[in-house]
Amino acid sequence: MAEATRIMTGAPVPDWCDAVVPVERTSTRRFTPGAPLDPTIQVDAPSRANIRRRAEDVAIGDLVAAAGAPTTARLVSAAASAGHATLPVHRVPRVAVLSTGSELVPVGTAPGPGQIPDSNSLLLAACVRDAGGVPVRVGAVPDTAEALRAVLDDVAPHVDLIVTSGGVSAGAFDVVKEVLSGTQDAALPPAQGPSDVLLVAVGMQPGKPQAAARWRGTPMLGLPGNPVSAYVSFRAFVRPAVRRLAGHLDPAEPLVERIAEEGWRSPAGRQQFLPVRFVGDDGVAPVGPGAHHVSALTRADAIAVVPPEVEAVGPGDTVRVMVIA
Ligand SMILES: Nc1nc2c(c(=O)[nH]1)N[C@H]1C(S)=C(S)[C@@H](COP(=O)(O)OP(=O)(O)OC[C@H]3O[C@@H](n4cnc5c(N)ncnc54)[C@H](O)[C@@H]3O)O[C@H]1N2
Ligand code: MOO
User: Fold this and answer.
1) Exposure pattern of 34-47 as b/e (b: 16+ CB <10 Å)?
2) Which domains does the chain have, with CATH numbers?
């Protein structure tokens, strides 16, 4: 003969009880407010059944959230359950995105002769969001040093990173290069202009011309203007920076291995970033002859990253790819 008492889900278990039986498995069937409890339990109660033990989820000293872990809804719940009303977190980085080019018109405005829509500022702003930052989209800035300097002065104090597109190559109007190289600003101290300037040709294709600097102390990355180059450069250089600023401990792009279904050529001495689509379970193939066109990116599932010493990828070769989420 055993004794029983009524208990609701979540209530503390009296210390003389050693099991909990769901009401629908007793002769009472369901609790009715005010009705007397039927004293007869018709089931065998396996010992310890339906009792949640103290610390069975998390014990004192268990790790609930590792440093650098993303503050997901699940992590917030676990921390709250362990009694943490606040957590030390990294601020979501604010990233200014601006395009340079006097040929650019805002998206939605019909381009005249010699003009094109400023697609890069939308592309890069969306990439910043995907990377976990807040984009501050400045839009297009004409190719004059005065205009670019004024915009950089304006945004630098309010953001954690500035990303520009265009104006870093060898043209006559390569304005990012001009203002960073400081030819006109040799006398400006770093607090009023550029410092730590790198204007480089990176051994990659596309994306060869790149710039890195600080503007009035704020980090700045200058990407090439060609839209596919801008996208690939964002994935290679900017996304890891945004993730680092957001507090990720391992901000690098993960590469996964796939098998080339078709072969393609790769430039000697440059790391190739080629838009590819997934084929079958583990294959990839180039998206087509227009891989340097921005519309090709919409058909791509990943970017194949081919090392500089490889001049041709053959069918059946293993290639490493960055997946486009
Ligand atoms: N003499 C040389 N010319 C070029 C070289 C070189 O080494 N020597 N490099 C080539 C490479 S590689 C690239 S990439 C481009 C990059 O040059 P810039 O970063 O200075 O880019 P821009 O000339 O400003 O623009 C290139 C191309 O992309 C279009 N563009 C620019 N911004 C946008 C935007 N916001 N949205 C859409 N499209 C944009 C721009 O109109 C040009 O057609 O230089 C090569 N030349
Ligand atoms: O390397 Mo450029 O970046 O050819 O497109």
Assistant:
1) eeeeeeebeeebee
2) 1-55 (no CATH), 94-245 (3.40.980.10), 256-323 (2.40.340.10)
